[in-house]
């Protein structure tokens, strides 16, 4: 990408983020839940377009009152799923510190969890149950952190308990980011000590991105143990991505 085009892209990103801030500040206090969700969905779709990300999915809708899990690759993941249907996400607290996007994700219903905090897990567990019973879609990334494509890390089991308590199935999804040649697009990987700015730079300079969002068969939670659910969900995701675990 030449410098002029790159700087124009940066300007587009900045304008879109500011637009999101204004929507949250000026409109959200007055909008209904349905209107907020519509705004979140459209804004997420537009954000992906700004980053030259095209979503390819194999479903038309997402069930309400459900628990959605997925492998976790990038900060883009939340916005990819929200571009289909806004969810109440659980995400690591590190995201809150991201410039503007962390606050915008919070306004969109994301709840942050501190790593290793048992009190946070307990608080969020009850939050998830309340949201499911209210008919909301809740979503979390059971790996607990991002992983490079081609890897599916072990799934943490604690939050799967919410699905058991609410008597709803787990709905697994898989995410894959591909380049123009149909190969894994590793410029999207957000791992290690990479900063948000560096990740954004990689994506903007990496060319077109096609993200495949695939829904798998739901996994019943009735009579299951959370560790069983976590293991079954990880196996389903790894098999769909053709990844050894």
Automatic annotation (TrEMBL):
Pfam families: Acyltransferase. Residues 66-178 form the Phospholipid/glycerol acyltransferase domain. The chain crosses the membrane at residues 6-31. Pathway: Lipid metabolism. It comes from the Bacteria. InterPro entries: Plipid/glycerol_acylTrfase. GO terms for biological process: phosphatidic acid biosynthetic process. GO terms for molecular function: 1-acylglycerol-3-phosphate O-acyltransferase activity. Keywords: Acyltransferase, Lipid biosynthesis, Lipid metabolism, Membrane, Transferase, Transmembrane, Transmembrane helix. The keyword rRNA-binding does not apply. This is Acyltransferase.
